[in-house]
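Need a sequence for this fold. Nothing fancy.
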């Protein structure tokens, strides 16, 4: 198997404990220094290498599998099928050809929508009502292979990308096991993706966490949920003649209240509402720099706001 992070773990566990087939090896991303782990769209769970070593499965952690050395390692394992989930690299043709039956991928969207590295986040950010998991036959194109199985779920009104991914991962594991059994019995015909319906889900960057208060409140809410657990939604508290203070805004509810221009703050001892491009956002949870997340009332109690304070980008 090739995979990294908590989206891949349920599929790997299922292959180890529920499948009649043997896992001959694991390819996963190299271990990163603690300071670099945050710079990932993948959540950290029990750990793919931990699961593999507990099961006696060989582990290979190259910077790239698309090298002669990587292909040689895959060929040495003599796998019948490559199974991937959130591995993080596009596999070249010689990698796919290293296994007798090629490869399948567990992808966290209803393809052909949201091809790319962050399908769960972009489904939330773009306001989709549902998403799901698709098992595809792997090809050289980005998430472009024939669809072998699909399953849909509704997106919760307050669900973050991390929470939704945690629901999708076991669903994908079950679908993958079924397809693997079917492939072992003979060819499986998939449905080709409609190119006219393709949308992209590019990798998130740190700047995607900067909250844009000029957007409508519903869009701001979706952004806040889409960028958790990474890169996290943040803004800056600005006071007259004071450098901006970075603050994570972790949960809120859109309202139709007219608080004022984007970034305007309306507050009392327990509540905080922020003006947006249309409507406003009632804030529920925040996290000041260097502290744990907390209810907004606790933050207001410790750092009382003053008239004229506002939220905005670092430089305004």
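Here you go.
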């Amino acid at each position: 198997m090739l995979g990294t992070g908590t989206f891949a773990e349920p599929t790997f566990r299922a292959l180890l404990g529920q499948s009649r087939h043997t896992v001959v090896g694991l390819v996963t991303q190299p271990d990163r220094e603690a300071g670099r782990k945050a710079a990932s769209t993948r959540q950290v769970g029990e750990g793919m290498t931990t699961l593999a070593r507990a099961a006696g499965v060989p582990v290979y952690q190259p910077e790239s599998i698309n090298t002669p050395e990587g292909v040689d390692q895959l060929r040495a394992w003599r796998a019948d099928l490559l199974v991937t989930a959130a591995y993080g690299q596009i596999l070249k043709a010689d990698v796919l050809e290293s296994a007798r039956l090629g490869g399948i991928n567990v992808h966290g969207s209803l393809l052909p929508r949201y091809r790319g590295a962050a399908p769960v986040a972009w489904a939330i950010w773009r306001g989709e009502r549902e998403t799901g998991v698709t098992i595809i036959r792997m090809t050289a194109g980005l998430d472009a292979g024939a669809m072998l199985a699909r399953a849909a779920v509704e997106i919760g009104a307050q669900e973050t990308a991390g929470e939704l991914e945690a629901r999708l991962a076991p669903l994908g594991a079950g679908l993958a096991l079924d397809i693997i059994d079917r492939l072992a019995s003979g060819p499986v015909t998939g449905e080709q993706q409609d190119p006219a319906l393709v949308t992209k889900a590019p990798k998130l960057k740190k700047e995607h966490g900067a909250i844009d208060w000029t957007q409508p409140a519903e869009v701001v809410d979706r952004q806040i949920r889409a960028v958790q657990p990474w890169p996290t939604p943040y803004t800056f508290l600005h006071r007259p003649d004071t450098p901006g203070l970075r603050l994570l805004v972790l949960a809120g509810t859109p309202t139709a209240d007219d608080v004022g221009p984007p970034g305007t703050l309306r507050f009392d001892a327990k509540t905080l509402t922020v003006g947006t491009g249309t409507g406003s956002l009632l804030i529920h949870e925040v996290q000041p720099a260097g502290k744990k997340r907390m209810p907004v009332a606790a933050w207001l109690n410790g750092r009382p706001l003053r008239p004229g304070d506002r939220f905005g980008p670092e430089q305004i």
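For context: The chain is about 25% helix and 25% strand.
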